[in-house]
Amino acid sequence: MAEHGVENGGARLERKVMVAIDDSECSHYALMWVLDNLEESITKSPLVIFNAQPPPSNNSFTAAALSSARMYCSVSATPEYTYTIQEQNKKLAFALLEKAKAICAGRGVDAETLTEVGDPQSTICDAVQRLNISLLVLGERGVGKIKRAIQGSVSSYCLHNAKCPVLVVKKP
């Protein structure tokens, strides 16, 4: 991948690479793959490390023991509970991004980090467009066909909807 493009007037354009990560081994592998294989691109242009925090849920399930059986009841989450979950998710996201940034710094790569709350599929694609990303890199989780059909695949969604080339890194 070329490090810079040339605009019609001869001015240089930045080529940004974004790696979307979560706490999975597959996304860690994708970040390491970028550091190993796109060194020239990411040392001369911005590397963006992105994390999508899950949106807050208004419902929670609780289990009540009834002798040897359990009864599951849907209960509405209180605002305090929702806030606590959001704050915990934010702390985890910042810790994950700081770890990724430290890995990059150890390789001499200056990385920008960004986290947003929302569905990972749309949140990643929105960030790609808003930040003018030139290449999106994701790790492949390797979920089964049935689970992918029911839940959808973030990488599949991004392949079809991101406004830039998408590289899905599969862990061997």
Report on the architecture of this protein.
Strand 5 and strand 6 form a beta hairpin. With 172 residues, this protein is α/β, with parallel strands linked by helices. It has a single domain, classed as Rossmann fold (3-Layer(aba) Sandwich). The strands form three sheets. The protein has a five-stranded parallel β-sheet, with helices on both faces. Strands 1-2 form a two-stranded antiparallel ribbon. Strands 5-6 form a two-stranded antiparallel sheet. Helix content is 42%, strand content 30%. It is globular, with a radius of gyration of 19 Å. It contains six helices and nine strands.
Keywords:
globular, alpha/beta, 5-stranded parallel sheet, disordered N terminus, two-stranded antiparallel ribbon, 172 residues
Secondary-structure blueprint:
Elements: E1 4-6, E2 12-14, E3 16-20, H1 25-37, H2 39-44, E4 47-53, E5 59-66, E6 69-76, H3 79-106, E7 111-117, H4 120-130, E8 133-139, H5 145-151, H6 154-161, E9 166-169
Parallel strand pairs: 3-4, 3-8, 4-7, 8-9
Antiparallel strand pairs: 1-2, 5-6
Helix pairs in contact: 4-6
